[in-house]
Amino acid sequence: MGHIPFFRRFQFKVTLAFIAAMFFVISLSNLFIYKFTLDSQFESLRSRLMVIARTASLLIDADTLKAVPLNHEGIRSPAYQVIVEKLRKIKDVNPQLQYIYTLTKTDKEGVWQFVVDPDPTTKEGKAKMPTSYPGDEYDAGRFPEMLKAFDGPSADRKLEIDEWGVTLSGYAPILDRRGKAVAILGVDMTADDVYRLQQQVRTRLFLILGLSIILSIILGMMTSRKIGHPVEELTEGTRRISNGELAYRVPVQREDEIGELANSFNAMAQSLSESRKRILGFFYDMVTTLVRILELRDHYTRGHSEAVSEYAAQIARRLGIDEEKIEKFKKMTLLHDIGKLGIKDSILHKKGSLTKEEWDLVKQHPIMGEEILKPVMSEEEMLAVVKQHHERYDGKGYPQQLSGDEINVFAAIVSVADAYHAMTSDRSYRQALSHEEAVEELKKNRGTQFHPKIVHIFLEILKEESKTRSNI
Predict the structure, then answer these.
(1) Which of 24, 220, 226, 235 is deepest in the core (most CB within 10 A)?
(2) What is the pLDDT of residues 145-173, one digit of tens each?
(3) Residue 414 lies in domain
(4) What is the pTM (predicted TM-score) of this model?
């Protein structure tokens, strides 16, 4: 999985999709909650302003209010001072109020006039403040809810703008003894107060949104890992199976569809492994038969492959190679000269020296052997036994001129075992060497033709073999 960029991985896409889905749901939920909360908060403010206005209006005596002269001199009248004092007390009890005032109608449609507003007397001398003295006209037609106030308590449905700024206002009628509205009482809350409340709501909602996003990321990563990791395991299993590792099994333990898929995958791998073993067994039997036929063509090499195979297995054990691989190795060693099937008998059995052309052809038999086995043998290290068993440690061998550790260890083992058995066997072009002579040749050529460590191990095996024979 390392070659796939992170942003293209299935796990990343699942995480991203999960986070996006949760973010959308949470954002949409928060949007509705935000709107609902703001609407509720706004309605709560309207209701509070109407209650304050209604309660305050009950404290105002209509007859005293009517006694206020509707001109600038009216602020000096006793009636005005009485009403001002009551309005200030109401404001003191409700510190969230910015303005409190009384208005009454004029003969003009939508035009009202101030009766009592305590602010001008407290803010006299301050520059650029709008006046609201008794009798000052006010365009009430701009505010639908204010116009309804003579009929009952009401409040603005949105923030309104007038000469005093942006406010939210509540209104209530001031009734005389007969229950007739003679004026209205208004209370204003500035936009700053409303905005502050709205900001508090936003802050809480954004905090919830932030925590929700973090939670969605954590849950997204956990969920995608539960889905993505098994998929990665299955991908890795597919890669290994395609590379010939039929013994590999996907380690996915789940009781869901992915678990079923993993179990099916492992069952498929088991079936392929068993089928491959049967095919390989049949192939080995067939090719081994061909090797025996090849050796029967030349009585000098009869039994050569079996002997080399036994020696090679003993060397492999001394190197600590596991038995399963040694069994495969023994079978491949039996086939190490299979490529000679493509060489004419006249060349293989020639008693004299080979010509350059004939020798070049003989040197092709490792490649021919690999080509014969490759269709049913995918393991490179086993095919190397056939292709590389004539390579030399010093790089002067054939067919690839490999050297040192470039040569597969199994091929290096066969090279030593093959050379020893060949030297101690009669050939059409020479007599067999003695055991001692062959051992000397191995010693002389270790580090040049042969891998020194393998020669050392093989010489120990031969020494032990000689002792066993002498004891018998």
Answers:
(1) 220
(2) 999 999 999 998 887 776 667 778 899 99
(3) 283-471
(4) 0.47
